Amino acid sequence: MSLSEQINTDRLPEHIAIIMDGNGRWARQRGMDRIFGHHQGVKALREVIEASAELKIGHLTVYAFSTENWGRPDEEVSALMDIMVESLNNETDTLIKNNIRLSSIGDTGRLSADVRSRLMETIKLTSGATGLNLIVAMSYSSRWEMTEAARKLASDISAGRVDPESVTEFNFSSYLATAGIPDPELMIRTSGEMRISNFLLWQMAYTEFYFTDILWPDFGKEELYKAIIDFQKRERRFGKTSEQLLDK
Ligand code: IPE
Ligand code: IPE
Ligand code: MG
């Protein structure tokens, strides 16, 4: 049986989050520049988007550039920004054709005007799509997001719009960049690193983690299928006992 046939389509995650890591090492292993690895990474992303759309996954969040990544050498940061613009230029028509909606989370105020306007343009052009919601985490970190949420909530409280007693987990979530998006059930990180690197800390309270040694440019449809098959073998207890789950 092929990997895709082993997937139970009745139990697909509604939201998959991916930390696309290992582009630099992939390139270095081949005696190439790290930037070459980032270009190859775009090809892997394209495949994973295609596979997710085919499987009818609702939301796919990809970590493209973290707040901490601003601290990389200037040439690398600017190459990554160029790759972002180039990818949006090349892929916007394909997104529209495949009914894929682009959205973003992150501090877009830190992006240069041309990167920001290209991103906003594609978000606008794809806003009517009803298929896969592709969420790009760009200039994103979870602590930035939570701090912003706390700031907005504090300002609503001080303006008398919100009663502090009424704050719940549920309405706090609506202050996050991911408001309205279900928490990811599955998070994949490539390249063998076993850490979260400031990604969706609030949203991943009960997410299943899947780590693979595969470097991001080598990740593709089959690798995604493997992660989903592994996810489907797990028992998600949410603090309850196995017996309680069986009783249902
Ligand atoms: C992931 O690959 C892409 C970004 C963080 C932008 P890396 O560039 O982190 O690659 P490694 O981890 O150095 O191999
Ligand atoms: C995380 O990868 C961020 C992205 C994939 C965009 P990093 O390569 O920046 O993470 P660390 O520094 O190894 O934790
Ligand atoms: Mg890395």
What does this 3D model show about the protein?
The chain has 248 residues and is an alpha/beta fold. It has one domain: 3-Layer(aba) Sandwich (Undecaprenyl pyrophosphate synthetase). 43% of the residues lie in helices and 14% in strands. It is built from 8 helices and 6 strands. The chain has helices at 23-29, 34-55, 74-97, 113-125, 142-158, 169-173, 221-232, 242-247, and strands at 15-19, 59-66, 101-105, 133-140, 186-189, 208-211. Strands 3-4-2-1-5-6 form a 6-stranded parallel β-sheet, sandwiched between helices. The two termini are 31 Å apart. The model has no long low-confidence stretch (mean pLDDT 98). The structure holds 3-methylbut-3-enyl trihydrogen diphosphate (2 copies) and magnesium ion. One 3-methylbut-3-enyl trihydrogen diphosphate (IPE) is lined by residues 20-25, 65, 69, 80, 191, 216. Residues 20-25, 65, 69, 80, 191, 216 line the site of one 3-methylbut-3-enyl trihydrogen diphosphate (IPE).
